[in-house]
Predict the structure.
Amino acid sequence: MSTFVLIHGAWHGAWCWNKVIPELEALGHKAVAPDLPGLGNDPRPPRGITLDDYIACIVQSLDAQEGKVFLVGHSMGGMAITGAAELRSSKLHWLIYLAAFLPRDGECLLAIEERNPDPRVPPIVIPSEDREVLMLSEEKITEVFYLDCSDADIAFAKARLRPQPAKPLSGAVHITERNFGRVPRAYIECTEDGAIVVDFQRAMVRASPCRRVISLDAGHSPFFSIPRPLAGVLSDLAAG
């Protein structure tokens, strides 16, 4: 049995893994999914939350597990798992990036996005007046995040999206070869992704190479559209 800690992306919560967790359990694994601060069912208000708060949340979840784990980050969650790996490399079998931001030392999400020749999420972001909180334009949410998902899953997700704290997107990660660099990395690319297009996913992997790269024929939310194949890929990585 392997243990997976599943980290969601911006605007989302642990609820996005609700189809994947039972699939992993059916394959004999344990899976846990925390809510990052200010998102999901976490009670904290979004203003003032930082990337360091996200990283601390993940570290706490890692410390609660027996033995080593497979740490999975989706989308923006890739930033947070990178920072957590620097602090808890000894707790990790693998880092697994799922259609995720893959930073180099000193990078923040906004700086990475500036290199993106085909940005899809920034045009649909609506900042609050003080720019501390980010909302999404309703009209493009499905096209960007859930294009290949069922109507039921889209409705489920839209009812649970929360305003995204802005500061984590400008927070830089600081990593070293001694810590982060010792953890094997895998990248699961989603070829039909409408949020982080696959060409940009591949550009991030070229800049920060991973030991394994797996392709899924899916949009940005494979945890909804293909939960069983996604769980199978995760299980195969654990077995390998």
Q: What stands out?
A: The CA atoms of residues 112 and 139 lie 25 Å apart. DSSP finds ten helices and nine strands in the chain. Strands lie at 3-7, 30-32, 69-74, 92-98, 125-127, 133-136, 164-165, 185-190, 212-216.
